Amino acid sequence: MEFLKQAGMALLGGWIIGIAFAGIKLPAPVPPLLGLIGAAGVLFGGYCYEFIVRLLFRQ
User: Fold this and answer.
1) Structural domains of the chain, count
2) pLDDT digits (tens, 9 = 90+) for 2-34
3) How far is CA 22 from CA 5, 8, 12, 29, 36, in A?
4) pTM score > 0.70 for this model?
5) Residues 29-49: pLDDT tens digits?
6) Taking a C-beta distance cutoff of 8 angstroms, is the pair 29, 21 a contact?
7) In sequence order, what are the residues at sequence separation of 6 or more whose Cβ sits closer than 8 angstroms to the Cβ of residue 28?
8) CA-to-CA distance for 29 and 16, rounded, in angstroms?
9) Domain residue limits at 17
Protein backbone atom coordinates (compact mmCIF):
# COMPACT_ATOMS: atom_id res chain seq x y z
CA MET A 1 0.00 0.00 0.00
CA GLU A 2 2.94 2.32 0.69
CA PHE A 3 4.08 1.95 -2.93
CA LEU A 4 0.69 3.07 -4.24
CA LYS A 5 0.81 6.13 -1.98
CA GLN A 6 4.29 7.04 -3.22
CA ALA A 7 3.35 6.41 -6.86
CA GLY A 8 0.26 8.58 -6.46
CA MET A 9 2.27 11.40 -4.91
CA ALA A 10 4.85 11.17 -7.72
CA LEU A 11 2.09 11.31 -10.32
CA LEU A 12 0.43 14.26 -8.59
CA GLY A 13 3.76 16.10 -8.36
CA GLY A 14 4.45 15.48 -12.04
CA TRP A 15 0.97 16.70 -12.93
CA ILE A 16 1.49 19.93 -10.99
CA ILE A 17 4.88 20.51 -12.63
CA GLY A 18 3.32 19.80 -16.05
CA ILE A 19 0.66 22.44 -15.46
CA ALA A 20 3.28 24.94 -14.26
CA PHE A 21 5.51 24.37 -17.30
CA ALA A 22 2.56 24.62 -19.69
CA GLY A 23 1.42 27.81 -17.95
CA ILE A 24 4.76 29.52 -18.55
CA LYS A 25 5.01 28.03 -22.08
CA LEU A 26 8.07 25.83 -21.51
CA PRO A 27 8.56 22.36 -23.01
CA ALA A 28 7.97 19.45 -20.64
CA PRO A 29 11.19 18.47 -18.78
CA VAL A 30 10.87 14.78 -19.69
CA PRO A 31 12.42 12.57 -22.36
CA PRO A 32 10.38 11.41 -25.35
CA LEU A 33 7.98 8.50 -24.87
CA LEU A 34 10.51 5.90 -26.03
CA GLY A 35 12.97 7.19 -23.45
CA LEU A 36 10.38 6.74 -20.71
CA ILE A 37 9.60 3.23 -21.93
CA GLY A 38 13.32 2.39 -21.89
CA ALA A 39 13.70 3.76 -18.36
CA ALA A 40 10.72 1.66 -17.25
CA GLY A 41 12.40 -1.39 -18.78
CA VAL A 42 15.60 -0.72 -16.85
CA LEU A 43 13.66 -0.35 -13.61
CA PHE A 44 11.66 -3.52 -14.28
CA GLY A 45 14.86 -5.43 -15.07
CA GLY A 46 16.37 -4.35 -11.77
CA TYR A 47 13.30 -5.56 -9.87
CA CYS A 48 13.39 -8.87 -11.75
CA TYR A 49 17.06 -9.35 -10.91
CA GLU A 50 16.43 -8.79 -7.20
CA PHE A 51 13.46 -11.19 -7.32
CA ILE A 52 15.47 -13.92 -9.06
CA VAL A 53 18.41 -13.56 -6.67
CA ARG A 54 16.04 -13.89 -3.70
CA LEU A 55 14.44 -17.00 -5.23
CA LEU A 56 17.76 -18.69 -5.95
CA PHE A 57 19.53 -17.81 -2.71
CA ARG A 58 16.68 -17.74 -0.20
CA GLN A 59 18.21 -15.82 2.66
Assistant:
1) 1
2) 889 998 898 899 889 888 988 999 887 777 888
3) 26, 21, 15, 11, 20
4) no
5) 777 888 888 888 888 998 999
6) yes
7) 18, 21, 22
8) 13
9) 2-56
